[in-house]
Q: What sequence folds into this?
């Protein structure tokens, strides 16, 4: 990869990137630095959250050997992150895939991409926060989890996250930076302790790494049938559920210093760090799993292994770290959703846009959009809190939707790569073709997994949300007089707006 200097005229003193080039005014402060940008991407991925919540499911569907799908997912998602970085360096504005699709393809497709991204973020923030209440806190505090107390606790967690996001981006980033630092240090220490203590106690069982557990070895590596996926392929969902959300760094582009350079680096570094650290953790846990078939029956298999090997004190410390990591993950997801709603509303493309596009002059954040995401999260939670089967089927869409977003964005890059605007800080250079090929092969493979019948309810949710979006899109097209009415703002738009502001100011001063 190569780094290109920004073209002349793209830098405005005090802003790093001139958003006027894209038809916008600089409305939020640029205070996000390199580590904070990386932390946003890493927190959304959150290997502690993903592995803790899905490792048991992989033991049941794929056996311990399913962890060997993790390196495949890491390489595939790294290729996707590099392509996203190349686009983020060319159009470094809030809205990521929505902006890229709107400006490089057409506004209608861009709106569809924005709506799909919004539906993903609205679900996944509830899915992540619900994990604290349903899986972690009952073990940590020693009480019986029920749908009722899970509902109450998740509601409180959502409220705390919304308060941080609404009233202070600076404090949101501080909390997130602390959480990410704790997760990085904690996971590294855990891996080292597990391997050292396990080796001294002679509990490491390398054979577990190649065991299929309670699943038959015959046809283990098959691709399955039309509506069913083979056991080993299902293991891919461990990484596919976990290593997503790195693009959240691109959704804070207008708040990031030198975003064309910082954001691409933050995304691929978050994927690489998560992939490497997560895989070593999986190796350690699996070698210390004891009897994998027995462990698969536990609701908290990772905590069980750590409690047994390192004792209850370290096990409790792990659970505390997981709670912190999950809280930060949900907070970053909420912030990402808020920025997307704000970006679409700024273009008058979101229902109720006149309200959600406002940035609080006191807090410098889209407080109204934050309120919307909070209310939607509480609504989704309230509708399904006592229907746990339906709720977890809904959460399955949190794995399906990113695959759709990634595949669409990579296809956009493939089709438009010869006519892309100049990069302001990051390009794929001579690695472009290999990266594209690997990303395309990976995404086709990943999408093929979702043909499994277990995802039928997830596809149903997606269909319902797309149908709702289609109704609003038709209304929008009629109101705007066709697709041309959805044209994206450009430099002329901001010039006209600035002229209008200047005239208003002159009138207010009596000139």
A:
């Amino acid at each position: 990869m190569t780094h290109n200097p920004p073209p002349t005229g793209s830098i405005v003193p005090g802003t790093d990137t001139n958003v006027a080039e894209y038809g916008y005014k600089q409305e939020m402060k640029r205070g996000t630095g390199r580590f904070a940008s990386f932390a946003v991407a890493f927190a959304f991925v959150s290997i502690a959250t993903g592995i803790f919540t899905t490792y048991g499911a992989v033991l049941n569907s794929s056996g311990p050997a399913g962890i060997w799908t993790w390196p495949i997912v890491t390489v595939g998602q790294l290729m996707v992150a590099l392509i996203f970085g190349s686009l983020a360096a060319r159009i470094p504005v809030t809205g990521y895939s929505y902006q890229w699709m709107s400006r490089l393809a057409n506004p209608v497709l861009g709106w569809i991409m924005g709506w799909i991204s919004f539906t993903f973020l609205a679900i996944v923030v509830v899915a992540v926060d619900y994990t604290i209440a349903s899986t972690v806190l009952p073990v940590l505090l020693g009480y019986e989890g029920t749908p009722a107390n899970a509902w109450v606790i998740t509601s409180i967690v959502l409220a705390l996250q919304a308060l941080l996001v609404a009233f202070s981006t600076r404090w949101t980033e501080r909390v997130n930076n602390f959480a990410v630092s704790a997760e990085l240090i904690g996971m590294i220490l855990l891996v080292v302790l597990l391997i050292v203590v396990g080796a001294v106690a002679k509990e490491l069982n390398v054979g577990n790494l190649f065991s299929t557990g309670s699943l038959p070895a015959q046809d283990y590596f098959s691709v399955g049938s039309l509506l069913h996926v083979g056991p080993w392929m299902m293991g891919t969902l461990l990484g596919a559920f976990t290593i997503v959300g790195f693009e959240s760094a691109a959704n804070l582009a207008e708040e990031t210093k030198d975003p064309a350079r910082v954001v691409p680096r933050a995304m691929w570094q978050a994927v690489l760090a998560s992939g490497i650290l997560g895989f070593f953790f999986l190796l350690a846990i699996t070698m210390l799993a004891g009897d994998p078939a027995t462990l698969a029956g536990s609701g908290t298999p990772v905590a069980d292994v750590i409690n047994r090997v390192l004792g209850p004190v370290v096990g409790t410390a792990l659970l505390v770290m997981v709670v912190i990591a999950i809280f930060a993950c949900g907070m970053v997801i909420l912030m990402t959703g808020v920025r997307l709603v704000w970006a679409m509303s700024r273009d008058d493309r979101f229902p109720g846009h006149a309200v959600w596009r406002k940035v609080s002059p006191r807090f410098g954040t889209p407080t109204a959009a934050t309120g919307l995401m909070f209310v939607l999260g509480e609504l989704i939670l309230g509708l399904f809190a006592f229907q746990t089967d339906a709720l977890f089927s809904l959460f399955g869409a949190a794995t399906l939707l990113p695959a759709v977003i990634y595949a669409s964005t990579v296809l956009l890059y493939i089709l438009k790569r010869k006519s892309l605007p100049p990069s302001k800080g990051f390009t794929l250079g001579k690695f472009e073709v290999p990266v594209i090929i690997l990303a395309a092969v990976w995404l086709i493979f990943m999408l093929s997994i979702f043909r499994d019948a277990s995802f039928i309810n997830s596809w149903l949710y997606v269909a319902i949300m797309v149908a709702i979006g289609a109704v609003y899109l038709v209304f929008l097209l009629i109101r705007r007089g066709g697709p041309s009415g959805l044209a994206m703002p450009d430099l002329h738009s901001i010039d006209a707006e600035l002229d209008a502001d200047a005239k208003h100011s002159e009138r207010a001063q009596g000139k």
Remarks:
- The two ends are 54 Å apart (CA to CA).
- The chain is about 65% helix and 0% strand.
